[in-house]
Amino acid sequence: MSVSRFRESKAWQLGMDLAERVYLLTDSFPKSETYGMTSQIRRSAVSIPSNLAEGHGRTSSKEFLQFIAIAYGSICELETQILLSHRLKYIETHDSELILELLIETSKTIRGLQKAIRERITKE
Known about the structure:
The chain has 124 residues and is mostly helical. It is built from four helices and no strands.
C-alpha cells in the first residue's frame, strides 16, 4: 500500500474530522485547563487517525489490527473526556451531542475495518 493510501480510508477521514472538531471545540475551554483537559482531549482525538495511519503503514494485517485496537481505545477515552467536559460545563449540550454522534459513526466504521482485517487474516 502506498504511503498516502491511508487517506482513502473512511475511518481515517472520520478520525480527522473528529480531531478537527475537538480542536475547535476546546479553544473555548478555560485557560486553567490548557495543560489538563484541553491537552488530554486533543491527544486522544489526534490518536485516532494517527494510529489508523500508522497501522496502514505496517507490513502485516496483525500489526494493523493492533493499531486499530489502539485507535478504538482512544475513541473510548475521548468519549469519556467529552462527557466529563460537558459535566464541567466546558461544552454545551448541543456541541457534546454533535461530537458524540461523530464518535459513534467513527467507532462503527473502525469496528467495520477491524472486522474486514480479521477476515483477511483468516483467509491468509
